[in-house]
Amino acid sequence: MAKIFAKDTFAVVDLETTGTQREKGHHIIQFGCAIIKNLQVVKTYSFMINPHREIPQAVINLTGIHNEDVQKQKDFDFYAPKIIKILQNTIFVAHNVDFDLPFLNYELMQRGYDALTNKAIDTVELAKIAFPTLPSYKLSDLTSQLKIKHLNPHKADSDAYGTAILLIKIIHQFEELPQATLNTLSSLSHGLIRDTSWVITTIADALRQEKCPLGSQYMQVRNIVLQKQSNSFSGHGENRKFPQSDEQKKKLFKGKLHFRRAQVDLINHLHQFINNPEQRAMLVEAPNGTGKTFSYLFAYAYQLYSGRKLIIATPTKVLQQQVIEREIPQLLRVSKLDLTADVVKSSSRYLDLDGFVQTLFQGTPNKPTLILQMQILVWLTMTKTGDLDELNLTNYEAPLFAQIQHPGDARVGSRFASVDFWNLARERQEQADILVTNHAYLANHYMDTIWGQNPYLVIDEAHCFTDNVISSRNDSLRFEALWGVISHLRNLLYYSNESVESQFTDDVQLNFLLQKLDPESLELIQIINQLQKELYAQHSHAVNHSLLPNGTLELSFQGKGLFGNNSKFRLTLGKFQQKLEQVRDLTNQVLFELYHEQERVLTNTEALLSEITEQIDSLDYYSEKGYQLADLLSDTNNLAQNGFVLMITNPEDPLSTNLNWLMLDATEILQQIYSRFDHLAFISATLTSDHNFDYVINQLALGNLHPLEYIGKSTFNMAKHLKVLAVKDMPSPDSEAYEEAIDQILINDLKSKQHVLVLMTNLEKIHDVFVAIMNTPELKDFEILAQGLSGSNNRIAKRFVIAKKAIIIGADSFWEGIDFHDCRIDAVFAARLPFEAPEQPEVRLRQRRLEDRGIDVFTKDTLPRAVIRFRQGMGRLIRGEQDHGQFVILDPRLWTKNYGDAFLQIIPVKIEKISKKELKKKLKDE
């Protein structure tokens, strides 16, 4: 199909520059260009250019171009005529064309040449649309993911060649799309950068002439082309009887799985537990690399032919996918059982086809929304599930998601009812033998009928189950945001240039409703303000005060401190709920009238109706939060189990007060969850503290179930895989010298490593370390990522996995909660022992509650939590028998404090005590 662009010459350009601000004296230091004819690279150019200024260190680190490389080269005056000749009569292409073309034109115009007026194409936008499920669209990542070979990433000539091959792949990808999809993409593409739409419209117009039939793998509903649905995988169902003996297991495992004594012992213990009607719960600590997931799947699988399901809850969606895509297929290959499995997650993770198609006709969207719509159109030709997680997005904050996330209702009679992703998912879940969900979803939906009758339950990574249940129950009432919703609604109804009041002056019923709604909405704002003032007035009862870096005042309260017996808040909250219902109801009536009026009004009111609908949805959301809070305050026992945090964005202004509530004791909800399931197995690599399960039994509220306890053995010699180094001559952790020592270790000692994790406990210290090391020449080959500074935690994890060499500086969830897929980590640095920051509201409130009950907080809560987190941090290194790595402890308190023994005891290999000077060699030798 190369004939589509047979007459076109593409000039794919990449520039390396001394910086991004051309008006401030930054200049080009390398011009790279690859010429494409007939969709083949026929020629490349590379010019090193003297910028007549120093190249900044950050640019040297990125490009590898040093000052001496350009000092003796000709300057841009010499190359300008050559560049103009090369680009004449070509289509200008760049990866981020709005940087390269304006920069090049600026340099040309500064020397008296006319600006280039070539047709200009951007491969960033095209790549996002053509390959919607890729995790990154940086050029170096795209060339790696699409297996495009170019020798010197971040050099202009090599990057230009890589971008040229990328463009060719993009064009071929578009040529494979169904015509209906191309037609819709073409109609949307006018909003793309410069002339980028020309690529899509040219392909769509050319292929329309060929009238290709729809491929057999597709179905078309209206103008949307979808991948045909397929059933869950299953095995062959040969032998449904559990293999009791080693010989039977060896026969099954042969050629598919190594027979490992420790793993088989784990399987046997789980099998005995499942078949013991006297036992309901079991705690299993299985070291990393044991194959614990396969073990519990194998033990439970043979019990699933009685019509009972196995429910597996993991802490993260990444682990969910790993169980579904890797572990269960392995179970079926080994066992030859004919079981089916599916993922269970919130309806909001699925695309609502009706809602999505509606957004395609809502006028001109902003650029991110347009790109996302076009990505989804292409993705629909690929996905069999409609699961939005397949798009590899790092957040769901774009306004489009409010319209396209499935609300969870059963679709009947809608345009896409027969192919509705959520309905089809529920059907698969109903039929499945194994359901894999996450901790948070289970905590909020444990009574769902989808689990079936008397189901089995496995809690994977059980050490964090309680905290995940708690965080899933935490919530807030953001009064400032609600105030903003009401103000925006009033603007739509009364004050904007195209307000409802100004457009419908002659509609008697509508104006009657508007006059009635006006004072009601103002009164609602006054009640909100009253609630804020009443909360603000309680600041003296706070158990903790923190001024956050962004200026927000954070006040933590026990329930009885914020809502005492004489609290006026409950009464005002009742008025708030009533008034909010009135405003919502009246706004709904206004919307109903507007839909009737729409047909007789000439002006287009679609956008207005959509915005008012959004505000009603927001009012519904805040109404629900109000009722949740009222329920919480009505139950004295419930109130005592919760903590409250006021977030005051302007400490001097009561009207900037917002309310969060936190669950402090999950005992009741945990026991309710357990009562719904049978033979519950709690499994993790880190469940014990001080060589016993006492802490986790208390945390998981398992005392009444008297769980069986089992500690598995490792399936390999850990000493051959894990090296633990403890630096003995570090300064005090509270000194500036300590931070400087960490900086120097990271700068000077990591050259031999690929992926390094630096675990800290304080976000401010993360910032300081990041600033100290980010532009150092010694680390120029590393992508340096820092929590709170390099995007969301999910984005950081994604970048870490993709990069050839990377360092993460993180705290909190990076000790245990963030997944790095199959990325091998060479070294983990524990900068500090992982004690929780006591200034965090949830920590202080939980500790205060324990203190009130006469419990020794440090020994019964703080230390066990830190020990388990420490073990999790160490477990980052060795996930299986192929992994090797070094765990480096920098905190000298390991040796100087009594509690250091608690950490030393759980390290499974001999510790090497070394000096700072010895560390570099030790890291290099491994």
What can you tell me about this protein's structure?
- Keywords: ATP-binding, Exonuclease, Helicase, Hydrolase, Nuclease, Nucleotide-binding.
- This is 3'-5' exonuclease DinG.
- Its EC number is 3.1.-.-.
- With 926 residues, the chain is an alpha/beta fold.
- Strand 14 (544-547) and strand 15 (553-558) form a beta hairpin.
- Helix 24 (569-597) runs antiparallel to helix 25.
- The protein is globular and about 85 Å long.
Key attributes of the depicted protein:
alpha/beta, 926 residues, 7-stranded parallel β-sheet, single chain
Strand content: 5-15%
Terminus-to-terminus distance: 51 Å
Spatial shape: globular
User: Major sheet: size, sense and barrel closure?
Assistant: 7 strands, parallel
Number of strand elements = 26
Number of helices: 36
The low-pLDDT segments are none
SS class = alpha/beta
**How is the largest sheet built, in terms of strand order?**
10-11-9-12-18-8-19
What does the radius of gyration come to?
31 Å
Helix content: 40-55%
| Overall residue-averaged pLDDT value | 90
Protein name: 3'-5' exonuclease DinG
Enzyme class: hydrolase
EC number: 3.1.-.-
Motif (DEAH box): 460-463
Give the structure's gist in a few sentences:
The chain is of the alpha/beta class.
Write the layout of secondary structure elements.
Layout: E1 9-17, E2 28-37, E3 40-48, H1 57-63, H2 67-70, H3 76-87, E4 91-94, H4 97-110, E5 120-122, H5 123-130, H6 139-145, H7 156-175, H8 179-188, H9 197-210, E6 218-221, E7 224-227, H10 246-253, H11 261-274, E8 281-285, H12 292-301, E9 310-314, H13 317-335, E10 341-343, H14 353-359, H15 367-379, H16 400-404, H17 421-431, E11 434-438, H18 439-445, E12 456-460, H19 465-473, E13 475-477, H20 479-495, H21 500-503, H22 508-536, E14 544-547, E15 553-558, H23 559-562, H24 569-597, H25 606-634, H26 636-640, E16 642-648, E17 657-663, H27 667-675, E18 678-684, H28 694-699, E19 708-711, E20 722-727, H29 736-748, E21 755-759, H30 763-773, E22 783-786, H31 793-802, E23 806-810, E24 827-830, H32 841-852, H33 857-875, E25 885-889, H34 893-896, H35 900-904, E26 911-914, H36 916-925
Parallel strand pairs: 1-4, 4-5, 8-18, 8-19, 9-11, 9-12, 10-11, 12-18, 20-25, 20-26, 21-23, 21-24, 22-23, 24-25
Antiparallel strand pairs: 1-2, 2-3, 6-7, 13-17, 14-15, 15-16, 16-17
